[in-house]
Amino acid sequence: MAFWLFKSEPDAWSWEQQQARGQAGEEWTGVRNYQARNHMRAMKLGERGFFYHSNIGKEVVGIVEVCGLSAPDSTADDPRWDCVTVRAVEPMPRPVTLEAIKAEPRLAGMVLVTNSRLSVQPVGDEEWRVICEMGGL
């Protein structure tokens, strides 16, 4: 099973809004980067991801699950853009800040540290475990 990180600016789409969508989840729309799109195309049902508040907060605040496979992005006029549907699984008991992630030597190679602009990115198994531990899970 692969793990992922989904970045969202909380003033555009917040963890609270994601949770309010319940089991149906929400399309992860608006991604206009080929690498991020290709990550979504590779996702499988049931895979988990971190929900990361970017720009404001800069922290992992929850865990989501892929509940809908890659399909055309309903907000795009261009058929090249896809999105998955994700649903909230659980909040992070202690949000894990970007500062804390950068300070943790075991996370030095994490995409969030090395390519912080990518909005949908893979997370390694050990990175997943370390961040869950830091967040109290």
TrEMBL record:
<dbReference type="Pfam" id="PF01878">
    <property type="entry name" value="EVE"/>
</dbReference>
<dbReference type="InterPro" id="IPR052181">
    <property type="entry name" value="5hmC_binding"/>
</dbReference>
<feature type="domain" description="EVE">
    <location>
        <begin position="2"/>
        <end position="134"/>
    </location>
</feature>
<dbReference type="InterPro" id="IPR002740">
    <property type="entry name" value="EVE_domain"/>
</dbReference>
<dbReference type="InterPro" id="IPR015947">
    <property type="entry name" value="PUA-like_sf"/>
</dbReference>
<protein>
    <submittedName>
        <fullName>Putative RNA-binding protein with PUA-like domain</fullName>
    </submittedName>
</protein>
<dbReference type="InterPro" id="IPR047197">
    <property type="entry name" value="THYN1-like_EVE"/>
</dbReference>
